[in-house]
Amino acid sequence: MQQVIELFLTDSEKISDDLLNRLLSRLPDAQKAKALKFETHKRRREFIVGRTLLLQALVTYNAFSALPDILEKPSSAPELKGVNDWYLSISHSHQLVCCVLHNSPIGVDIEFKKDITNPIEKSHFFMTAEEVAELELLVSDEAKKHYFYQVWCTKEAIFKALSPAEQNTTSLHTLPYSGVVDGEKRWSIFDTDIENYHLSLAYMGKVERVQLRQIDLLSLI
Known about the structure:
Helix content is 35%, strand content 26%.
């Protein structure tokens, strides 16, 4: 198992249209075709940047004799064709886009921490009664906001790490924020704040560290 998880991260708002088109031209044909189907510039940009980070991750790990084809799924994360022992996850929020590749199930989620008018009321759709009770004990608005996004991102990351079959029978509300399932620690959790964003990573097993790699997309051209 990998001893270090590298998480690739970039700011997509700083990308010019010219650079975006150059990144698009470097994508495999299947990804080019899907990118051009997005009607909004924002979604197209997020997709192109996410797939560019994925390609960079594949090259960085150097675990493949030839880069595997990326299979696009209609409503779930892409998969690597013919590769059963590598897993990937992509997330984006506002201008930040991140991607992670690992040799065991993994999920990443990043969220921009906007102000929440009534965090307790809005927490019921993804928190358990115990988690809501813990939120209610917090005094300051900032502490409530931090806990809200910490739990939300962690549960989203765990959900993304599940197999499609497990996702079909799972809701965020029932997912364990602690990563403990049936009394056993199934998921290891890494989370951090990046300016006004919260990022959570869920993965199986133990690693020495999680390393964030800020990617300058212009340097890839």
